[in-house]
Specification:
Blueprint (H helix, E strand, L loop, with lengths): L1 H5 L4 H15 L8 E4 L6 H4 L6 E4 L50 E5 L9 E6 L6 E4 L2 E4 L4 E4 L9 E5 L3 H16 L4 E5 L6 H8 L5 E4 H8 L9 H14 L2 E3 L9 E6 H7 L4 H5 L7 E2 L10 H9 L14 H7 L4 E5 L10 E3 L12 E6 H7 L1 H13 L2 H12 L5 H11 L8
Parallel strand pairs: 8-9, 13-14
Antiparallel strand pairs: 1-2, 3-4, 4-7, 5-6, 10-16, 11-16, 12-14, 12-15
Length: 431
Amino acid sequence: MIEHVRRGRSTRSLAALLSATLLAGGGLAGCGLSGSLSPSTQRDSAIVGSTVTGSFTGQTGSGPTATATTAPSTTGVTGPVGTSGSTGATGTTGSTSPPGALSTPTTTPTATSTTPPGAPTVPTATTGGCGSLTTTTGGASLLCPTPTTTTVLPGTGLPTIAIGDQNTPEQFVLGELYRIALDDYGYSTTLAQNIGTPTTPVQALEQGTLDLYPAYINQWDTSVAGIGRGFRSLRAAYGAGQHYAAQHHLELLAPTRFYNTDAIAVPTTFARAHRLRSLVDLAAMVDPVSLGTPLEYSQPGGLLSTLEQSYGLVPGSTPQIDIGSQYSELWSGAMQAAFVQTTDWQLSWPEYTVLRDPMHVFGVGNVVPVTTEQVVAAEGPTFTQLIDWIDSKLTMKAIRRLNYLVVERNEQPSDVATAFLARNGLVPLGQ
């Protein structure tokens, strides 16, 4: 550039060179700079055989001013004023670049929190730009490029996660919750519905054709781990299931807050009239109740026999019921009690009361997502953190509401899951 000046090139040539320098450099180190060439550069007579002088001033700060070390017969360009702290930049010296050269801006990753409390955070990267720098030469203005912020999604480029669920509306919603959330965090996923009996998904996990599915801890312990006894707490049931999983290079993620087990419900008015709170109270009633019972529960060795052994509960009659029809029977007064599932959407109504099971005859039915140690290692910590965060939001009230929307309102599980995640603050991060 100096050689061109010495040969007496016109002001237009100098402007073109400065423009090229600005565009090649991409900006000045330290954003928010402004400056202009001295008026002498606008006159040919002053340019030929004289010194080119320029100055740029940075944002006010407490850092030292650095002066460029220049070659003979040229005046160095004063570096931008450094700022003490995280926003300023220290002035550069001419010892590493020719006098007047503009430094290239760097890319600075910054951690931001655009996710709800407890959910994994997603970093962003800010690239380019030099604030409001405008350089004028010969009437032409050169503007620095606008900085751009790019979201860095944790799942980008990682192996595809094959998700499966079982053939119930509740399971369909769970599978969609995991799929949509993982997709939002940049993971590549597939979802297969109706993956079979409790033992079938385990075989698929071991073969590598399945990576994640929601299991119920009581089914896992009995059908998969082969544990023949029940548990009185979630901690005990989860610990036993995780012990078996670790022996087979599998892993149980954090359980949901809701549990899906059998239960006995009565009309709330009936419960208040007879002060019923638990199965102990129901068994102690003088007048035996009519207990609506699925056919398989009435068989020898069935659940009805277990209740008699544990609580001494002997109903006056056990009319057969179909799943889902028991609520209309309870409502009409045709029966005083009935077997239900704890996550039935009808139990959201205050008209029904679920009796407590202090002896845990019905077991522990929290959902535990099952995966493999290999998948956990390959997908990184955000994978497990995200699934754990979803499970922490799935209360009994929440799952009954989700079941209501799918079963009674006939809404699509994917739409229901998307709305649930949005209500809890998890929005698509890639948009």
